[in-house]
Amino acid sequence: MKREERKLLDGNYYSVRMRAAKNGAHEHGGKHISGGEVLSNYGNLKYAVNALLEKGLNHSRGNPDFMQIQFELIDEPIKRMKPLQIVTNEVDSIEEGQSFARRLLEKEGIQRASIEKAYQFMTEYSGIRGAMLIDIQSNERIDDRKEKGVRVSRMDWLDTNFEKWANCYMMPKNSRVKEALVLATKVNEHPATVAELCWSDDPEYITGYVASKKLGYQRITKLKEYGDERGCRIFFVNGLTDLHTYIHYLEKQPVFVEWEEENDTRSN
Ligand code: WAQ
Ligand code: MG
């Protein structure tokens, strides 16, 4: 079938991506402001592009002077996944939040030395726009993306299904929680991912999370100070046979998160 014909059919999805920076493009040393990745069918492309445009234009990290938005047809089947179980842990202070995050990581068998190393890398690369990959055997950062990091892409969650989920779990229907849970679900689905540690680089958002297959998506309500623009996204990996294949999965495997009410085994 020709592309022209195919794009008219429902079921063809496009990966739409945005990145915005200030004081020049990322590759010219600009400050990362915002990024975003969604899936859209042909008919909704203008809304998808517009939503990403708005995300980048109105950002607490500043007004960008560089933005790139692109879309491309996805030529392979989209994998469906159930969202990780969500748990919210209320904490009173950053110290409590941070030590709780470390405890969760240790529960996953990650050694203290690995965690310390992660915090070191984090201060070294605080303006990064992607994630850092840390091997829990060698305690080394294993991706070769330096100040860029690895950006997970080609994933989404259809709004109607997400809203049903949000109602059930009494979660705010904002795209931040949706995007983070989508990313965490995709990343932690891979057998080589042991756990993920994340908090936002947006100065006004201080809730973050630790996620893993066993623990689910563990939100922690205070992981940094208001006003702090240093974010964090670290994937702890183990037993990785092929780094290239793993990064390809993160960047290229199309994924839809889909929640099924009937089969949900939630216990809280
Ligand atoms: N792939 C890899 N890394 C990413 C991606 C991506 N698609 N998107 C963001 N990052 C990295 C990047 O280094 C950012 O600086 C950092 O993560 C934080 O990104 O209440 O909003 O989009 O349950 O600012 C989590 C809690 C919010 C949500 C996380 O992250 C909740 C958040 P942000
Ligand atoms: Mg951000």
Structural features, described:
It is a single chain. With 268 residues, this protein is an alpha/beta fold. The protein has two domains: 14-75, no CATH class; 80-263, no CATH class. Helices cover 30% and strands 26% of the residues. It has a six-stranded mixed sheet with strand order 5-10-9-8-11-6, with helices on both faces. β9 and β10 (216-220) form a beta hairpin. The protein is globular. Residues 35, 37, 128-131, 149-152, 176-177, 180, 183, 198, 200-202, 205, 207-209, 219, 231, 233 line the site of pimeloyl-AMP.
Main attributes?
268 residues; 2 domains; three-stranded antiparallel β-sheet; 30% helix; binds pimeloyl-AMP; binds magnesium ion
In summary, what is this structure?
Helix content is 30%, strand content 26%. The protein is α/β, with parallel strands linked by helices.
